[in-house]
Design brief:
This protein has 151 residues and is mainly α. The protein has helices at 2-15, 40-60, 69-84, 90-118, 145-148. Among the domains are: 12-48; 62-121.
């Protein structure tokens, strides 16, 4: 009688999902078919992880760093194509596009720094703050005694 129970447990173990949690517990759901290793939920996650690793090679190709605007432009062009094919979620695509925007903004400062270090004479990096008004700090500010008294 015990052998029958052990046999049924091992056969049910074969059709259970092979996904393991972080604590090491195995998923209790049944696999889709005999050739699949995962249940419906975990097979989708498994395919998503495989899909995500392929996206990196499609988006960036051989690039390891974005050193010029051309590299960022190429990445954004590939991202737009993947978004139009619905292979990248709009939320994920917008995060990547925002990150590319930050990279583009820093490329100009990076080239200024490289030019400053390559010249014989030291060149200063200037940052233009536009039309922001500058505070007048020539006069000391005084707090009136009326402002400190409670009403």
């Amino acid at each position: 009688m015990n052998k029958a129970i052990v046999h049924s447990a091992s056969s049910s173990s074969a059709v259970r999902c092979h996904h393991r949690t972080a604590s090491g517990k195995r998923c209790r759901l049944i696999t889709l078919d005999s050739s699949s290793r995962f249940c419906l939920r975990h097979s989708a996650k498994h395919l998503e992880s495989i899909h995500a690793s392929n996206l990196r090679s499609i988006l960036a190709g051989e690039l390891t760093q974005f050193e010029c605007a051309y590299d960022v432009n190429k990445f954004l062009s590939n991202l737009l194509l993947l978004l139009s094919e619905d292979r990248v979620s709009p939320r994920r695509g917008s995060v990547m596009a925002y990150t590319c925007n930050l990279i583009l903004r820093t490329i100009a400062f990076r080239t200024q720094e490289l030019q400053a270090h390559s010249d014989d004479d030291s060149a200063a990096i200037t940052i233009d703050f536009g039309d922001l008004p500058r505070p007048d700090r020539s006069q000391p500010t005084h707090i009136s005694s009326d402002a400190t008294k409670p009403s």
